[in-house]
Amino acid sequence: MIISNYYYPFMKAFLTVSILFLFNIITLAQNSIGKIDSTKLNLVFRDSTISELKNSIARIKTDKSTTIGNLWIKGEISGLLSPHVNYYQLEMSLITPLKLDNKDYWGESRSKLEILSADDKIIFKRLKDNEGRIKKFYYNKSLVTKFINNYEVLYNTKIEIDFNKIEFYDNESFGVACSMSELTSQGEVMMELVKKKQLQQLLDWVKAIPALTKAYGVLGIYILTKRGIVLKKEEKRIFDLAKKETIKINTCEGCIYGTQVPLNILLSEKNLKEMYNSLK
Predict the structure, then answer these.
(1) How confident is the model at residue 17 (pLDDT cuts 50, 70, 90)?
(2) Quick one: which of 74, 117, 72, 113 has its CA closest to 92?
(3) Distances (CA, A) of 24 to 19, 21, 28
(4) Which of 279, 190, 206 is nearest to 244 (CA)?
(5) Helix locations, 61-155, DSSP H
(6) pLDDT tens track for 102-122
(7) What is the spatial distance between Cα 33 and Cα 110, in angstroms, rounded to a whole number?
(8) What angle (nearest 5°) sits at the alpha carbon of residue 228, between those of residues 223 and 233?
(9) Is the dihedral of CA 156, 158, 162, 166 positive or negative?
(10) Which of helix, strand or coil describes residue 233?
(11) Residues 6+ apart with CB under 8 A from 53
(12) Alpha helix (H) ranges present in 46-109?
């Protein structure tokens, strides 16, 4: 006890200095990263076409302080509309050299840019930080409204246009035999809806824009039809329509994750039958 009391002031002072030191590093990193964000991220955010954006990415890749991924096209939001609207994702990792007490440290900031384009023209873009918080967004009101209106007519639905909330793509995976849990979390919700015969809610899923939700909606309705539920004419039209979509979706099977498959292949009659049999 005497020894503990003797060393206590020294331990307290050491911890205080350590905390202040770490706080200085974090503050310096945040300040430096903010300056880089406003420069590099604005460079890719200001482009108005996919061609311009690709040129900006090529220029940024020459900068060693920045790690920028490729511009990934995830697929069409709906291959049944004209002009076709594509969804892209771009991820950036900005590496900032920091100096504190003549020692070198490194700070890192990650961001994701989501993009919708009609042909080459960018009609919507939204920048998110690593925690999914929206930093800024832009949209061409007339073109985005036209796309949303066409989608609403196609699927006989109503979409709330709130660009702080609306999602066009879901990075989660679709699967009915994923690892030991077999179903993903959304797949488990789907099966609960199936058990309760919640056809209308599953139909709302089919009408949704994100492909993952749409796919589980189709599978859930397929199971219900195999259990005796008969679809009305308009319900069957929407169900069949969704199965023709070409947007790609992440899938998982066993321990294999991340394989991308277009909806029209994933939701083929053969695959739906196999998934139905595995869920019996």
Answers:
(1) very low
(2) 113
(3) 9, 5, 6
(4) 206
(5) 141-155
(6) 655 555 567 788 888 888 899
(7) 10
(8) 85
(9) negative
(10) helix
(11) 44, 47, 71, 90, 115, 122
(12) 50-60
Complete DSSP assignment for the chain: -HHHHHHHHHHHHHHHHHHHHHHHHHHHHHHHHHHHIIIIIHHHHS--BHHHHHHHHHHHTT-TTEEE---EEEEEEETTSSS-EEEEEEEEEEEEEEEETTEEEEEEEEEEEEEEEETTEEEEEEEEETTS-EEEEEE-HHHHHHHHHHHHHHHT------TTT--S---SPB-SSBTTTBS-HHHHHHHHHHHTT-HHHHHHHHHSSSHHHHHHHHHHHHHHHHTT----HHHHHHHHHHTT---EEEEEEBTEEEEEEEHHHHTSHHHHHHHHHHT-
| Amino acid (1-letter code) at residue 179 | S
Which of 173, 138, 52, 33 has the alpha carbon at shortest distance from 92?
33
In tens, the pLDDT along 44-103 reads: 677 788 888 888 888 877 766 666 667 777 667 776 677 778 888 887 766 555 555 565
| Separation in Å, CA 230 to CA 11, 81, 155, 197, 205 | 73, 28, 19, 12, 18
The residue extents of the domains of the chain are 2-141, 185-278
Which residue is it, tokens 């066993």? 254
